[in-house]
Each structure stands twice: as structure tokens, then as C-alpha cells.
């Protein structure tokens, strides 16, 4: 016979969906946020983005080489981790910090677990938290937005969440001018890490992902809704101490987390009900940490904690199998 | 009442015995390969911790202090804990031989589990009242169980993964424990004290 | 109006446009027919002819052995030239009767037609057995067994499966369009045997002409045609029952547990032939399609016709086929060569070119959850598959591996190209083998 | 001082009484011999004894009188230890080793189709009886490698399983895992084996495999008594294995191998490590 036939088990048809394509879509969805950050913070933001991305790809390649595993840079997961990491750092981060972050994310949080699909914790968030704890000064030196700046010596400014927390700690009440900045928050004119600043850009990216069916609505919706409801309760109880839900939605890394980190497929539940539970858990923990914890921002910790709970959530939110009947006693 | 709730929350999350105080690491690493086993261990520890807290508190305030022999605290507490563990061991062997087998050596080792002794000693150090001690014990035990079960879930998942040879087993477990502890740092400052 | 359906499933491109408008054609007789003795689920038939015997069309050449078994009949007249192992669609050589056709195609003595108004129920069932009727949707389960529910399981509903949710296949579609009278006669027989009046015909909404035709034909009968959402696997028995009558067959149970019997429309037509005309199951309608073929067709095929003949009738191949599939692309079986014969379960023959064969290497599971959302059995394919790969069958069983209906939705939707359903099948086999041992 | 003694003693006494009562109430009887046997077993839980794991075997020996010589990983020493614990005479066990009876890797043997899908022999075997044309040939997808508890099996780059004679303990797990019955248990002292599992006629074998046994009888003629031909397949008569050497040389397809001289091509195992134990070690 000239050509040998292919034989395989059914099905002989596939959707054509591929891991590479999914990762690429997420990267596209992050581009608006990345562009806004570069616009707002100028050259330093671009440098941080580049270092993180390239270093992540580099570390991934080195690991796979060392472990003698096939090179899978083409799947885009390392680049994605790098971009996410950069979006979680302040624009003023020194180059070595980006490098350490990329190392932690790729090597410690991902490759030693066996690579893509195996890491129990979101690599970019692990890196962010490691950096936050190790270099608190550099990690909280936020630069004030200075559109298209080429300078590396920029004015520092606090994040809105930081301001709120500090005011409550010192004076027992929120600063009076807090609500003034909503328009700025929405467009990204505030201090913060690269990816936190523009709610609009993040929202666009998130909706793109849902539209393209890369992610489902479950996690973002349940996450954001929980934050609104839970923070709303506190706000209604005491509006002078606790900021209103809109403030929570638009500031900090909430949108970035809800659309891009809490939907990271590898580290979150696979069942639709599990995703809802995951979102609710993230929402509760975020608000709890923001309002009562030692850190002004709770998104990273909340998602990491829920990452840890993911195997259990999956286990206990299995769909009811077809034809499930309770055993008759 | 608020005080008690704060003690409970603090013991479970903020000052989690395993992940923040780093007590009881031995069973945490030893019997966390399966969620069921971890749960069984958590329950055994919960029982021992709660009863130990009660008994050691009574011994401290009704025997050691009245007789001025606080210097015997450690040995007296260990004595109590050891007997309790023995008791639990016998009960489990009778009731659930499967659990008994899977817990293996770690069951008698609860005796020397620093989490239990640490709890008894902390109770006295912090000057907790009887009720507070019990609540603290329950909180600590729940926190221990929570950490165990979360960790076991993660390990079950890691077991399905092609972890590089040199990291397999305890190495990857320790890394994971570290990351889990990192995540728990988010609770820092939630409850003062 | 919201069409009825079931939760889960997905929408593969249906590719029915190649053959949906092609009327059924008779496939000419080949010179030699290979009739396997095992064409159904259950014990293979026992040959009752010897080399050199002359047989007539419709004559029994293999007798049923046991309750779950059916006889096999000669598809045409001619001489038996061999009774030996021949390549079978299952992928290995299995016992078959080889007949050299004499070209006269002369009928043998057929069983007398039955009048369903007079005939007893047992007589009707016996006739269905004698004529070798099996489920023609592809599962080939003997029909008489399905029609003999135990007394403690009363049946109140008959559902005819005209869904044909597999892409490419249009054989049932053409049958419903062109030969609806056979189906209606079959319904009458089935209603009599089961003693039911409530009957539904489930048809996917992508066959509006068939829906219209049957609806008109059934206007005065206690038969309702239900248009169903176009979704794979709408034609899976349990999913069909849920969609049509809202009953969920319990896990591990059979449709009769909820008072339902499902028959494929093709089976129903064959039953009509058997009872009303005494004709055994010696031919069926099959869709011959696929990009490697010159022209797609719906053919009436004699059982035992080599696949090569079917391809010739369709004008041969455009390019060398890279994959030969008997059945649909989702659940069909790949074939080693075109020399194997068409059998009673051959609902289609697809020839794929190298372009349709995905040789993309599998990647790691990224836990995207697409398989979980697509799974019509509502289990966790990726988890079961992961356990199956490590031979952890007890864990796989605890995650309900045995509830898998092997529809292939998980593998279809997997972005990492993992052979999920194959892994689950592997676990199922191991679990069942272990159970048999104990 | 006295207070200390009394109070500690009191606590101890109270605890002792409580434990004593509990011991009565929750008593579980365990035969000490069971623990002792478990102690001497290899702990591999390989199932070579036919029981699910070492503790089950220990229990079966004590409670059901199952023979003491079933632990092949442990070898003779373990058998003697168990026999001593049970107070019975140690029965000899002929140590065995598993051999892959096939050398037809992807370069030497033909496939009848391209297989796509789960890379597992049992899964592949279900698709038209597996891609390898030879019905008895190794599929090379490593099902045996994965079940081996001792890491004794490796897959060569060209896709064939090779079993290390040093690491194999004779637990038979691979035999059960192989869908084509390619792996056979052989007496450990024998190092010469016919590495083919095809019962097809010589002419058929030649069509699909360069290194298959074609049943030509040459080995039988050159080394009388050391070989048998059954169903077109030669096999070594292990009792006469010492006379088998001339047949290796003369075999036209080179399908007979003396493992004392080397492992099949592509294997990383070294023959030097595998000097045969003294004849009839048992």
C-alpha cells in the first residue's frame, strides 16, 4: 500500500481549538491595559513590560532545556505570565525586581511542578506576593501618572486604596475627596501598578475574552458581584469608614484579577459551579483583606487562597451526573 | 463574645498553627497525601487538642500553681497529651482500621506534636480563661485541619503531574507548603493580637 | 419557540450538505459478498450452510445462538464459496460466510406476512428475531430483546430516533423523507408489541423537510413529531428521552426503567418489512461521504458488500484517503482497508483526506473546563482521564467513569488535543474487567 | 518536692487507669506474626504473590496458611525468614525473570497503520488489534514500563521494551499489563532466549519483520536438544540451555540472544552487570 492509513479511536473530528490560540487571545485581551499603562507611565512601564515578558520566556526555555523536556514556548503561556506579572508591578520597579519576579513565577511557581497545567498557584500572583513581602518599599512606590513620560524619576503618589486605608487608620474615617476621582479611576489617571490603572481597558479586554468564549462569565461575575454586595453592606453600615462599592470596583487590581487572574484556567476550578464558588470566595476575601487586613490590596492574596482551595472546590462541586438518583434507603 | 470570635478567627486564619506559627509540620507533611486521611488526622488532632486544652488548663490552675510547681509544666502536659494520644490510637484502631493504617506512625507521633504542646503552653502564656482556652483550642485545631485538607487537596493534584524527578515527593510538598503559607500571609493584620 | 434538548453537548459543523439532497440510490450487487456472522451485540450466529451450497436471497445462513443473538441471512442468491475468518469492521478477522452472487438475485421462501390485527405479540416478536432485526443506529443491539421488557417495567412511551446528530450522515434523513410509509407501518407494529399509544418521533431541527413530511403523515395518528435543537449528541438514547419526555434514565439503568423504548427510524422500517412482508434484514441505507470522495451519496446497500464497491459507485476517490471511517465522525470506527464488508450497523462510510486527520501532538491539560461543560453525562472527563493514565482505576470509578456514554464531546472540545474519551474508555474496560474477575 | 511527686504521680495514675479501661474496651487482636512477616517482606506492594499488597500477603500467610514462598521480589532470604516466623520448612522457589520476546522495533518490524491516540499498548490493541503487523510483536507504547514497580523496564528510542535482568524481581506485573503476551517469565539462570513471539509461518514473518523467528529449524539442528520448534516458533529448552550457544550464531534472522553477552540494540542496560548467578541457585 502506498500510504498507510490512520486509525484511531473515535471521535475523528475536533473543534480546532488549541492551547496556543487560547493563550494568544488572552494576550490580545491584555493589550489595551498594557497600552494604557505605557501611555500613563511612559518609558518605565514599557521597560518593565519588556523585561518581565522576555525574562519569563527565557526562564521557561532554560528550565525546559535543563529538565530535558520538549520546548513549548510556542504555546504563549510564558509570555502571558510575563505580561501579567508586569501588570502587577509598579512602573518604577527596578529591573532586577522584574527579573526576580519572572524567576519566581516561571521556575518556582510553574516549572518545578511540571510546567503548564500543573502549577497549583497563579505564577504571576505568586511572584507578586513574593516581591511584595521581600521588597515592600519598592513594591509600594507608586508613580503618579505622567502621560508618555520618558523619564525614570517620576513623582510618587499613593494608590487610592492605600490612601483610604491610611486615612481610616490615622483618622478613623475616609478622606473627604475620595469620590472625586471616579472618572479618573475609570480611565486610568491614578497611581497603581501597571495593570491596575484603567478600568475601561480591563473591562474591554475581559468582555473580549467572554465574547471569544475563552473564559466563561461565571468567575468574573460572581467575583465582582460578591465584592459589590459585601462591600455594599459595610458601606451602608458606616459610609464614613468604609468606601462605597464603586470605589472598590474601580480601584486596585480587582478588575485585572477578576477578568484575568481568577479566570486563569490552570489554577481555578473546572466545574461551572466551582467557578461560582471560586468567585464568591475571592470576593469575600478581597473585601475582608481590603477593609480589615494589614495590606491595602487583597486581590492577590484572595486569589492565591482560593487557588489553594481549588482542588477541594472541584471535588465538592462535581456536576450531578446524568441519571443521578439518591440511593433508596 | 466578640473577644471569643476574634480568638477563633485568629487561631484559624491569621495565626494558623501550621502556616503562620509553623507548628505541627510533621503530620502536615506526613499524612497529607490524601484528603480523607488528612481529614482523619485533623479530626484526631482536634480531639486531642480540645481535651488536652481542658485538662492542661485544669492541671495548671488547680495543681501546678497551688502547689507552686509550675516548673513541672512541660512534663505534666506531655504526660497528659501522651495518654490522650494513646486513647485516640486505641479508639481509631477499633473503629476505623483503614484510617489507622493510613495514619501509621503519625498517630502516636501526635504525642510529640509541637502543635498540641504549643497550644497548651500558649493557653497559659496568654493567660486565657478556661472558656477562652477551649475556644482557642478549637480554633487552632480547625486551623490545623483546614491547612491539612487544603494541602492534601493540592498534593493529590500534584500527584497527577509530571513533576521533575529531583523535586518529587517531599521537595515539591515543601515548596507547596511555602506557597500556601505565603497565601495565608494575606490574613496578616486581620485581627490584632 | 425554544426547541427541546438536553444540558451539555456541542455543535460540530454538520457537513450534511454533501448528501442531504441526494435521493437514495440502489447500490449494484457486487460479485462477492462477505457476510460476517457477528454483526450485532451478543453471541455471533452459527453458520448453517457449507461451502458449495447454493443459497437464495433471504435464506438463513447463520442461526441465532442464545437470547441476545439474531440469525443472519443471505443478501442475494448465489453459491457459498467460503465459511472462514474474514476482515471485519471491528478490525480483525472474524467468522463470515462468503457468497459468490449468481446475478439472478432470486428470492428464497419468505416467511408469510403477518396481519398485526390478528397476530399475537409473541408471534410478532418471534418474527422480528427470525428476520434478524437489530438496532440500525449503529449500536446493533437485537431489537427483539429491547421489545421484551420484563413485566415489572411497564412501558408507556415509544420514541423513534430520527435525530441523526452525527455530522455527515443523512441516511435516516432520506429514509424519513422518501419512505415514511415504512416507518409508519413499523410504528403500528411497535405500538402493538409494546401496548403503548404515546409515540414520539424526535428529529433535529436541521431536517425541516423530514419534520414536515412526518408531521403531515402522522396528523391523524397518536404520534407526535418533536423538532429538537441541533446539538450533538442529541441522538444518544438517554439524552433523547430527556429531551422528548423530560425523564432522566437513572445512572446504570435502561430506558425501560422510565417506561420508554427507543428505536431508530431505520430499525422501525426494517421491522415493518419483516412483519408485513416477511423480508429479513439484508440491506440498509448508508451515507457515503467525506472530502476524499468524488461524490457523496445515500445508498441502499446489501449487507456484505465490500466498502470498495460503495466507493466505486460514488465515482471513486479524488485523492488517496487517509482515514476510512465506518459510521459518523464522532463515534464511528476507523477501518484498515476498503475490503471489509458493510454490515447491519453501517450507517455511513466516510473517507477523510490527510487534511482532516489531526496529528497535532497532545499537550498538557490546562484545565480549561471545556470538556466538563460539553459532557452530556455530566462527569469530569479530564479528571477521569488523568487517573486512567496513571492506572488509578478506583479513583476513576469514584469519578463516575462508568457513566460515560463515549460520545466524544470531550475529545472534540479539548484544546490540548488529549484523547480524553479514549482514556475513559480504557478506564471503563479496566474497571469492568476487574468486576468480572471478582 | 513531695507535692510535686504526689501530683505528677497522681496525674500519671489517673491516666494509667483511664488507658487501662480503654485498652479493655477497645481491644483489637493482632497476631504478632503478621507484623513480623510484614517486616521481612520487601514492601514493594507489587502483587507478585497474587494478593493485593504486602500486608494482605502477611495476613494470608498467618490466617489462611498461604505458602511462605510467594514473595519473588524478596527472594530466597525472605522466604526463609517467613518460614522461620511461621515455624515451617522453607520451600525453594526457582527465581524467575521476565523477558520481552520481541526485537522488532520500529525500524525492523512493519506497522499496518498509523496509530493516533492514547499512547498505551492496551488502548492501541483495541484499535484493529494494534498497529504492529506482527500479531505477537511489542507495540512499544510502554504499558509494561509504567506498571513496573522496580523501574526495571525501559523503552528504546525505536520503541521496544527491554527488561533489566538485575532490577527485575519476577513480580509478573508486566506480564499482566502486556496485551499481546510478549513478556514471558523464565528461569533466572537461563540467559539464552528466542526473542520472538510470532506463530506465523516463516514466509509471513519475513514480510513484516527482519528479526522474527521464521521457524527454519536451523537452531534445532545445530544445537540438538537445546531448542524446540512449536507452531513455527523456536524456544529454548531451559534445562538444556548450556548447549544453546551454537544456535545463536547460526540463526538467520538473529532472533536468539544470550543476555549474558548483551542486551538488544538501543538498550542502555549493560550486560556486564548481569553475569548469571551460579547455575541452579535455588
Automatic annotation (TrEMBL), chain A:
Its main location: membrane. InterPro entries: NqrB/RnfD, RnfD_bac. GO terms for cellular component: plasma membrane. One of its GO terms (biological process) is transmembrane transport. The modification FMN phosphoryl threonine is found at residue 159. Its cofactor is FMN. The chain crosses the membrane at residues 26-51, 95-113, 125-144, 193-211, 223-240, 246-263, 275-293. It is a multi-pass membrane protein. It comes from the Bacteria. It holds the Pfam family NQR2_RnfD_RnfE. Its EC number is 7.-.-.-. It is found in: Cell membrane. The keyword DNA repair does not apply. Keywords: Cell membrane, Electron transport, Flavoprotein, FMN, Membrane, Phosphoprotein, Translocase, Transmembrane, Transmembrane helix, Transport. The complex is composed of six subunits: RnfA, RnfB, RnfC, RnfD, RnfE and RnfG. Part of a membrane-bound complex that couples electron transfer with translocation of ions across the membrane. Belongs to the NqrB/RnfD family. This is Ion-translocating oxidoreductase complex subunit D. It comes from Geothermobacter hydrogeniphilus. The gene is rnfD.
From TrEMBL, chain B:
It is a multi-pass membrane protein. The keyword Transmembrane helix applies. Its EC number is 7.-.-.-. The keyword Electron transport applies. GO terms for biological process: electron transport chain. Belongs to the NqrDE/RnfAE family. Part of a membrane-bound complex that couples electron transfer with translocation of ions across the membrane. The complex is composed of six subunits: RnfA, RnfB, RnfC, RnfD, RnfE and RnfG. This is Ion-translocating oxidoreductase complex subunit A. The lineage of its organism: Bacteria, Pseudomonadati, Thermodesulfobacteriota, Desulfuromonadia, Desulfuromonadales.
TrEMBL record, chain C:
[4Fe-4S] cluster 2 binds at residues 375, 404, 407, 410. Part of a membrane-bound complex that couples electron transfer with translocation of ions across the membrane. Belongs to the 4Fe4S bacterial-type ferredoxin family. RnfC subfamily. GO terms for cellular component: plasma membrane. The keyword Repeat applies. It is a peripheral membrane protein. It comes from Geothermobacter hydrogeniphilus. Keywords: 4Fe-4S, Cell membrane, Electron transport, Iron, Iron-sulfur, Membrane, Metal-binding, Repeat, Translocase, Transport. Its EC number is 7.-.-.-. This is Ion-translocating oxidoreductase complex subunit C.
From TrEMBL, chain D:
Binds 3 [4Fe-4S] clusters. It is found in: Cell membrane. It holds the Pfam family Fer4_13. This is Ion-translocating oxidoreductase complex subunit B. [4Fe-4S] cluster 2 binds at residues 134, 138, 144, 178. Its EC number is 7.-.-.-. The complex is composed of six subunits: RnfA, RnfB, RnfC, RnfD, RnfE and RnfG. GO terms for molecular function: 4 iron, 4 sulfur cluster binding; electron transfer activity; metal ion binding. Residues 1-23 are annotated as: Hydrophobic. Part of a membrane-bound complex that couples electron transfer with translocation of ions across the membrane. The gene is rnfB. [4Fe-4S] cluster 1 binds at residues 46, 49, 54, 71. Belongs to the 4Fe4S bacterial-type ferredoxin family. RnfB subfamily. Keywords: 4Fe-4S, Cell membrane, Electron transport, Iron, Iron-sulfur, Membrane, Metal-binding, Repeat, Translocase, Transport. It comes from Geothermobacter hydrogeniphilus. Its cofactor is [4Fe-4S] cluster. It comes from the Bacteria. [4Fe-4S] cluster 3 binds at residues 148, 168, 171, 174. One of its GO terms (cellular component) is plasma membrane.
